[in-house]
Every structure is written in structure tokens, then in C-alpha cells.
Amino acid sequence: MVERVLVPMDDSDLAEQALRYALETHPDAEIVVLHIVGEPSPMMGGAVGLALEGDIETAAKEHASEVLDRAREIGDSYGIDVETEVAWGSPAKLIVKRAADFDTVVIGSHGGSIAERIFVGNVARTVFRRSPVPVTVVR
């Protein structure tokens, strides 16, 4: 039985679909939404912007607030409280690292802009290949 589900979430529609899938498929499980900010980009904009902040943790939470508020709204629409977490760094590496604490990962097949997908790589593919727990990729 699945007791804990990790749902990495950015601001894409597919990430929201992944969260809905997790809520529908595992209604009795603890659902944790993880949003990673400051990921590397072709121009290093997000990472540099956070690195220049005086308090990186607070800045990361501010950058993540809209996505995590949306995740809580979606959970509320299912009558389920979702936990939220914020991390800063490389999305694929951090998701794989956190996955060890969960029974499964539910992730959108892709997210972000086209430029981020081309230059940063496919996070879902990396998570799928390296996760220590089963991964469901939602399209």
C-alpha cells in the first residue's frame, strides 16, 4: 500500500495534472508537493537571482509561494491536505534524493519553458531512470 507520495511541481499544467492524478489514485496517502527553485537555466537567471539574495531560504519560499498555494488549492478541491516543501538547486538531483523517503513519485512528463527543457534536460526522464522508488509519469 502506498502511504507517502512525492509530487514535484512547477508552474506547468502537466505538474497540476500529476498532482490531480496522485490525489485521485492515492486518496489515503500523505501527498507532499515539492517545488524546486533556482534551478540552472541557460542564462543562470533563476539561480543567480536567488544566489544574490541575502536570505536564500526566504527568497526561495517567496518564489515558490504561487505554485505551492495552487497545490494546496487543488488538494482542497479533493478534500485532501497536501504538504508542501521548497528546495533550491538541481531539480532532478533533489527529486531523486527526496524520493528515497517516499513510496512513489508522481511527476508531470515535462514542464517549464521550451528553452528550459532543451538546455536543462528532461527532469522526468532523469527521475524515472534514477529514482529508488517507482515513478509514475503523467502526460
TrEMBL record:
PANTHER family in alphabetical order: STRESS RESPONSE PROTEIN NHAX, UNIVERSAL STRESS PROTEIN
Lineage start: Archaea, Methanobacteriati, Methanobacteriota, Stenosarchaea group, Halobacteria
InterPro entries reported in the protein's UniProt record: Rossmann-like_a/b/a_fold, Universal_stress_UspA, UspA
Organism superkingdom: Archaea
Family: Belongs to the universal stress protein A family.
Domain UspA: 1-139
Bilayer-crossing regions: none
Pfam families to which the protein is assigned, alphabetical: Usp
The protein's name in its UniProt record: Universal stress protein
Annotated organism of origin: Halolamina litorea
